[in-house]
Batch of 4 targets.
Target 1
Amino acid sequence: MSDAIHPLKVVQSNHLTQQIIQLLLQPEKPIKYQAGDYIMLGFDTTELKPFSIAAAPREDGLLECHIRNQLDSDWMQKLFTIQAGDHLVMQGPKPQMQLQTSSAPVIFVAGGTGFAPMKALLDELLRQEAPQPIEFYWGARSPEELYANQTMLDLSSKYENLNYIPVISDDTHDWNGNTGFVHQQVLKDHPSLTGFMVYLCGPWDMTQTAKQDFLSADLPENHFIA
């Protein structure tokens, strides 16, 4: 963990959806971090906000973040105008969650942009050539908000032990896949979670509800990372 402030150059700012951007950021000096870490990001040191790093350490040294807009935040409106070549600052990286050493089957559960740290942990698990079954559940309000859907489909085709399960909760028109709340889809597929390792990230109310429901489905508390 680091409290040092590092300058960043914006390499890319991509709109993944109308309200979600992907930032690729280049630190002035190489930054060491591990999958599951987050950074404190801002325009200067007066106001820094936490964002998960959305990939395992990359060979090009860039930091990737997926950020959802908050329409009532002037700070966020300013961030959404950022362009390649602009500069930001960061504090960190800081630990948020990390992969546990385990041979148990793994279930990742992501809600919205909670996809970011789950994808980072998945990247690391695949890099380690983990042999156990891996299931990646991603819940979103609409199909559009599954902004990396094709990436996940491609990964699930490439890795035989990876199963990707997208779930849509609200805008289900023209959607032929799973619907409802993502954590409930997990329980529908796995009424008992005994023997699984579960990682979860999403909105606070979702994580609290899912934790109680997962523990009630016999998931050991030390096998739940959120």
Target 2
Amino acid sequence: MFEWLADLLVYGLLGLDEGDRWSSALHFFVLDTAKIFVLLVVVIYAMGLLRAFVSPEKVRAYVRGKPRWLARLLAILLGAVTPFCSCSSVPLFIGFVEAGIPMGVTFSFLIASPMINEIAVVLLAGILGWEIALLYVAAGITVAWVGGVFMERLRTERWVEDYVWKIQMGEAQGGEPDNTWAGRHRFAVAEVREIVRRVWKWVLIGIAVGAGFHGFVPGEWVTEYLGGENNWLAVPGAVLLGIPLYANATGVIPVAEAMLGKGAAIGTTLAFMMSVAALSIPEMLILRKVIRWPALAWFAGVLAVAFTLVGWGFNLVL
């Protein structure tokens, strides 16, 4: 139905030619805008019903006191299914530290949370297929696990800002949660409003970039510089390209769609997506509020190397 809508608006009402670059870009923009925002609303509402009472305090409580390997696994899985972006990771970081959760476990959560979420997974599956979605999730979980272990070995506690150790977040305050369907519905609707309000402009920017890429970048250029398992420089180049950009995993999906459609290699595309979602400059500046520059430099370096290795590996195998 989204394809039909895009055809009707671009080729029917506007009367543009199908072979034209502008019409191709506009068709991509209309198609992805309708598809992504419908999926956003549906998925956020459905997950909101199930997640009505998951709060940062509950996330902290789930992880606290568990064996190190189990705590890391729970932190990664909770990061993947909770709607915490880099902005909300700062207070959650403080809460993890105050609860005595190891720093390596906390860093695993910080890596997984902005990079993997159920909204992005459903969008990836709906637009690019379940194979790409599962590859992205598997790579993200691996990077979060290995990155957290590496940061733990560096004893990053010494680089946490002093004020963080002094803050006592305490337990969540408030009345009893509303377990009725009406209460869960209100929570889910509020989730839709809040998350869509927070991401809509980044999604539109991502769709616009993807549309421009789809309509105006020659497929031969993409195949030559971003495709093929023998182009080793394409992957670190894609990682570096993602650093100055700012978007969540949802907003970068249209760009990835356009890249793959033009012939970019899967590993190069996945590395670019991960870099934009978890390694952007705004993300680093937010984390700078709680950790000092040495920890931030190691964190960025570990992720850049991990994303590059993931890209090379997928390009080589696939």
Target 3
Amino acid sequence: MPLRARQRRHPVLAGLVTLTAVAAVLSAAPSASAADTWNEAGSDRADPLTESQGLASVEVPAGSANRYTGIGTIPVGLSSRGWNHVGDPDASYDGYYVEPYQRDSGTTKMFRVQAPGGGWSEYVHTLGPGEALNNSWAAVAPGGQWMLSGEYGTMTRLLVFPTPGVNPGTSPAANLPQASTVNLDHPVRDVQGCDFVTATRLLCSSDDPAGTLFGVTKPLLQVDLSAEPNGSADVSGHVTALRQLPLRSSCSGTFEAEGIDYDRRTGTLRVIVVSPGFCVLTDSKTYKFTRG
């Protein structure tokens, strides 16, 4: 992710030059029984300043444009207060739009919410014991009342929160509490975004640079939940690696898998992949996929 606090920073945007080869062995990925197949169906250029972190399709109001996040979309008022990284956003089915924010230090993370009417609110969460500072993504469950979020690094869980602004138990004036946990049956690494496909199925983009967990770097992951998240009890999640995300550029080096979005109206899956080196400026892409 180009400018992710406490995570690898892109060589051009953050001033680091790190050109390493990416190894990918697709045939070594675990079999995907009862899993979807997603086939590449085109791409668009991803602007490195405004489309390099995440993306979301918004259903309400009707005709709303797709939303994107990047270092250039962070309001000055937020960055001046230390909220210098925005992750992969999501929108509820009734039009509430949620952006996850983090800063370089402290004991809180923040979710910025825009209501369908246009007004913005901020919901701050105080970290629990052992919780990472990273606030990489948000994924609102189809029912709207509950939202998943994730931490960076190698993790065996996803976090469940009441959806800020939607769940009546939330308030900008109160701490946004973690309600429950999704316990994964397989570790995941550097998940940059997840989105619900059904009430119990998620697709996630992983920026895993090593490939040791699933036999492939930068995998598209599927997480099947044992039940819909409801905030009152933990659920389990079965993880399957579906494929490697596209890694194509005029430059050689390390790609970065970023945010993900599933548009249920069209059945289109979109994932941002940022190119290595100076090609971050020229051929970073938002790839489109359709179910096979």
Target 4
Amino acid sequence: MLYLETPPKLIETTIFSAMPDEFRRKQSTEWADANRPGQPTDCFIEGPSFDADGNLYIVDIPFGRIFKISPDRKWSLAAEYQGWPNGLKIDSKGRIFVADYRHGIMELDARAGRMLPVLTSRNSESFRGCNDLHIGSNGDIYFTDQGQTGLHDPSGRVYRLRASGQLDCLIDTGVSPNGLVLDPHEAVLFVAMTRDNAVWRAPFMKDGSVSKVGRFCSMFGPGGPDGITMDKAGRLFVAHVSLGHVFVFAPSGELIARIKSCAGNAVTNVAIGGASRDRLYITESATGTVLVADISVLDR
């Protein structure tokens, strides 16, 4: 049995902004019928990421939309297209990349409001369903190909698309690979495996491959870990899609805090922001709400 020296801190959230009624759609979609059967779905937001001007970009999966939320919390539609955008990340040059379940890896041309294909297949084979992505400091894009994988079919994949264009398959036995993030030294890749209810830890070898992949932490519940991020101190923030919390783990794997949703339980993804990078922004997908929490308390 694991004994903790101190109980995990409880950090509360407040509502940063909710999708305006004018953008909510009360209609069925193929995505909602498959992923949220019998549940009203007027939006399902995900993929928070900040640009250099402090605008927060998010996606709306079932309706193929990408929104921009300005620092004064005004929403605008950045793009709408025939796709299912899931993960979104903005690189150091301001390029906006999207992991799209239907199309693969895409790029948003924000000025034109249109999507451009970046990588739509591997060796002429379509992806199973791309979910999320992370961009390394050298421009390499790490992304997950989740599809409908799970314990019954542990064949989800984790890829690295090098800035040179080379595509590497790092993991091909994933149990629903989802959010992913590099550690501060970019020596280890962490991957949320939703239906394994765990986060895997994948150390890099000298040749760039991964080896000795293991479970960094395990959780519970009908859903599992979804989007993840990490701060400069190496603390891992894990959004759990059914427990209504973001769980915070120390580099040792110890659970040190839980951040509680003040909206619904569908906590799906996270992004660190704020002038001092001391705020955690959280998508609560079912209610179309972006939450915020003060994470500076972790240093007190």
